């Protein structure tokens, strides 16, 4: 890294997530953390010595190559468009925007200027899911039948502007499409609101991917039990990823293993061995930052693109539409929807 150009990075927002971004940026190799914007100031002392500014314009005037956008979701579009207009690359916290239209405007703003931009769907950097994705790509599961996710825990008082679908379920929507390499074609959902806020705080959704894989998501912030569970069931068994502990286990279908000649005919399932994989556990947020830094430098880096972030916002909107209208919502193929179809 010593011979590469040092990048000048900024941050917008010193909330609970922004404070973690500040910690990573202050020590990120090859990057100078030059300033942070928060009109409320730095009440937690999290700026790591970087100047705390009141406006995005002041940050742009300092001269930044890229900026992390970690302000409330409702402000992502406004801040992102300011950065794009100034020619600044951006890593935008998830979800990309609070509306589909806003997400589309951000895609257009950065793509039309040829700027590197990504969305902070951090589960893509979780060691358990990285390992799961690689194993699915290698065909270790055979045909994939179903993806099930459960994401629940206590109510986060820091979230005031969106409900559980846009805040939490977007994690599961993105990771499901990412680990399988597939796109949602339909979704049916129910929501409830129990906490006295205008937004939903529990959702149950059933969906289908473009290869016929069935998807189930259960998400809430009404549970004292904190759970981050992803299972992928297929022909040769079931992978279970716990993204709280970054553990990945595999439960094999021993009936398949002993009947290779009969794979074409489904012969049922039998309980087989359970394997718990030993995987290196680096901090996902650090991995996310390293990937984005490399992307800004023009190196190959598997970041979540704005277009992928837009698709997740579109699916989340379909979840809310389904719950409101009590019907299954069909989604257009990605190539149509992302080009304004």
TrEMBL record:
Pfam annotation, one family: GFO_IDH_MocA
GO molecular function: nucleotide binding
Coiled coil, from the record: none
Residue ranges constituting the Gfo/Idh/MocA-like oxidoreductase N-terminal domain according to the UniProt record: 8-121
SUPFAM superfamilies linked to this entry: Glyceraldehyde-3-phosphate dehydrogenase-like, C-terminal domain, NAD(P)-binding Rossmann-fold domains
Annotated GFO/IDH/MocA-like oxidoreductase domain residues: 131-239
Domain of life: Bacteria
Designated name of the protein: Dehydrogenase
Organism of this sequence: Streptomyces pilosus
